[in-house]
Amino acid sequence: MPKRFRLTRRFPVAMTEDSYRKLRGFAREAGLDEGEALSFLFENFNSVINEDKLTRKLREFNTELEARKR
Predict the structure, then answer these.
(1) How far apart are CA 40 and CA 60, in angstroms?
(2) pTM check: above 0.85
(3) Which of 4, 8, 37, 68 is buried most, with the most CB atoms less than 10 Å from its CB?
(4) CB 38 within 8 A of CB 23
(5) Helical ranges in 1-70 per DSSP H
(6) Does the structure show a pLDDT above 80 at 70?
(7) How does pLDDT run across 19-36, given as a tens digit for each residue?
(8) What is the domain partition of the chain in residue ranges?
(9) Under DSSP, is residue 48 helix (H, G, I), strand (E, B) or coil?
C-alpha cells in the first residue's frame, strides 16, 4: 500500500529568480506543484544527484556566495 502523501511542513524559502524558474519548470514537466516537486527531490535526493558534481558545484556556490549577496 503506498504511503499517503501529506505536506506537513511549510516554511518560508528565499530563492533566486533562476532557481525558482528552474523549480517551476521541473514541477510543470513532472505534473507537480512546487511543494510536491521539492518533496520529491529531497525524498529521493541520493538517487537524483551526482555526488561528485554536487560537491564541486557546492564549493563553487559557496565561493561566490558573498559576492552574490551584495
Answers:
(1) 25
(2) no
(3) 37
(4) yes
(5) 17-30, 34-43, 45-48, 51-69
(6) no
(7) 999 999 999 999 999 999
(8) 17-69
(9) helix
